[in-house]
């Protein structure tokens, strides 16, 4: 089998042992940006992949996927995984720019703003263009005005799903759950607390990142897919199909 995993540090706890597990099973491992992982799965270039909700949703009507309810990345309230900064003295929001506009976390950030403003926010594909705001993934030292997972929680009262395992039904389904479990480290969740200077003007924001599919995950994923459909990023609402159930 051939497996694709994202190469960004945000997803590292889910794939910490992926190379060793693939070597043990004789599988081929591909590392790529998370949306590329979704494309590889869609085009049958790999049999299974750790994908975003957008990567899973793009298979609707085209491929029959199953989600593995094991390791998964869920963002609860403030996590500093991705966020939004505003241009100085901006009075209206009409355009956004990003260095990674294809990323689910960036696209959902634009949709959240659009939902809260009851407007369509144009997401430019170049970070160098003048825009009312920037939507980006976090880097060391990043300080966002708005945190995307916190804004999502405020909008939906649900965590924001960022990564989950999906496989084609042609894959070796009998071993998938055991294999992806072995690829992850033992981290169950990580608390996140905002760093605020002693003279800061607000209390630190808090949240947590969890690394396992849990009781919130299916409803949270359905909410994210609904938003992608409502804003016509996806042409249909994908069903949440779980391995071993659907």
Nutshell version of this structure?
The chain is an alpha/beta fold and 246 residues long. The protein has seven helices and twelve strands.
What does this structure look like?
The protein has 246 residues and is an alpha/beta fold. The protein is 28% helix and 27% strand. It is built from seven helices and twelve strands. The strands form two sheets. It has a seven-stranded mixed β-sheet with strand order 2-1-3-10-4-12-11. A five-stranded mixed β-sheet has the order 7-6-8-5-9. Helix 1 links the parallel strand 1 and strand 2. Helix 1 packs antiparallel against helix 6 and helix 4 packs across helix 5. The relative contact order is 0.22. The model has no long low-confidence stretch (mean pLDDT 92).
Total helical segments: 7
Tally the beta strands.
12
Q: Structural class per helix/strand content?
A: alpha/beta
Largest sheet: 7 strands, mixed
Strand order of the largest sheet: 2-1-3-10-4-12-11
Computed over alpha carbons, the radius of gyration is 18 Å
Mean pLDDT across the residues is 92
Cα-to-Cα separation, first versus last residue: 22 Å
Order of helices and strands: EHEHEHEEEHEEEHEHEEH
Q: Tell me the strand percentage band.
A: 25-35%
Global shape = globular
Pick out the low-confidence regions: none
**What proportion of the residues is helical, as a percent range?**
25-40%
């Amino acid at each position: 089998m051939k497996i694709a995993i994202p190469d960004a540090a945000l997803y590292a706890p889910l794939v910490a042992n992926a190379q060793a597990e693939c070597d043990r099973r004789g599988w081929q491992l591909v590392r790529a940006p998370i949306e590329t992982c979704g494309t590889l799965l869609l085009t049958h270039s790999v049999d299974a992949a750790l994908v975003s909700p957008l990567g899973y949703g793009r298979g609707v009507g085209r491929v029959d996927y199953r989600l593995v309810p094991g390791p998964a990345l869920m963002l609860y309230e403030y996590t500093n995984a991705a966020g939004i900064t505003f241009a100085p003295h901006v009075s209206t929001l009409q355009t956004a720019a990003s260095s990674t506009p294809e990323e689910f976390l960036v696209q959902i950030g634009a949709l959240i703003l659009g939902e809260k403003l009851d407007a369509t926010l144009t997401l430019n594909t170049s970070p160098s263009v003048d825009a009312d705001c920037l939507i980006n993934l976090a880097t060391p030292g990043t300080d966002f005005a708005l945190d995307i997972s916190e804004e999502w929680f405020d909008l939906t009262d649900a965590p924001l799903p960022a990564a989950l395992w999906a496989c084609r039904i042609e894959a070796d389904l009998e071993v998938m759950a055991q294999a992806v479990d072995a690829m992850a480290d033992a981290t169950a969740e990580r608390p996140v607390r905002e760093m605020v200077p002693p003279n800061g003007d607000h209390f630190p924001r808090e949240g947590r990142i969890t690394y396992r599919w849990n009781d919130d995950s299916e409803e949270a994923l359905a909410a994210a897919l609904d938003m992608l459909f409502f804003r016509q990023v996806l042409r249909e609402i994908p069903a949440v199909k779980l391995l071993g159930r659907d």
